[in-house]
Every structure is written in C-alpha cells, then in structure tokens.
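Researcher: I'm preparing a figure for a lab meeting and need a structural model of a single chain. I don't have an experimental structure, so a prediction will have to do for now. The sequence is pasted below. Please return the structure as tokens so I can convert it later.
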Amino acid sequence: EGMGEGEYTYLYSLMVYSWLEWDALEQLGDDWFIEHDMEEVPEEFRTEYRRTFVRQLRNLRSALEEKTDRTAAEDARLAELKEVVRAAREGPGGFPYRGEQFPEAWRMALEPYRERLVATLPTTPAEYLVDSIEQLIDDEQNKGVQINLEG
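Model: Understood. Here is the structure written out token by token.
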C-alpha cells in the first residue's frame, strides 16, 4: 500500500531475479513463447527489469557519492554499490545481487517469506505476460502494449 512503481520494480527485481534467481524460460519453458512467435518476450521483460534496477542502483550510488558527510555505513554501502553496478555492467546479462552477491543478512531476512513469494510468481506464460506487461508501456507517449477488458 502506498508503494510507487519504482519501489515495486526495485523490490521485485531484488527478490525475484536476484534472490530467487527466477527465470521465466526455466520455469515456464520456451515452447509456448516460440509457438506464439514471442520467443524474445521473456528476455525483453527481464532486460527491462534489469535496466530499471541497475539505473536505480546507479542513482543510489550517485546520491551517496554526492553526499559529503557520509557515515562509515554509507561509505561501506557506496563501495558495495560500486562493485555491484560494475559486476552487472561487465557480466553477460548479469542481474545485480544475483547468486553469491546477494548479502547473507538480506537472505536471512527474506528466507521466512520464500514460500509466500514463490506462490505469487507466474505459473503460466499468460500469467507472466499479464504480470509483466506494464513494463512495455510508455505512459507518457501512450505507446506499447495495452490490454483493455470489457464486459
């Protein structure tokens, strides 16, 4: 409640793609996407989430770099962000905080919620498309995919 789209995208990316290392093609298979001439869609969605997530991390890094009176904890966070953003940039489609990069303290805090989060993940290609479709819409220019349900 009260969460903005940016916050949601950040948390979704962090928990689903980084912590759970969830991948639509692994979980849903690629047959349906190929049969419907949509084999590139899962990668497009994943790329959009990754691009947004990395941009958010860069913004956080920049804000900390500009801050002149950083605490020791903020200095440590800044060093971490520099490494995470560098690794994401250099890795082949690497997602920030994925795998070994995911901090153990975060893992321990999230672990009790694993089952609940996994239960919310798409289980069919159609669920995946509806869940992810908002990432393709450019609200300002009114372009992209739009779904209208009537009746």
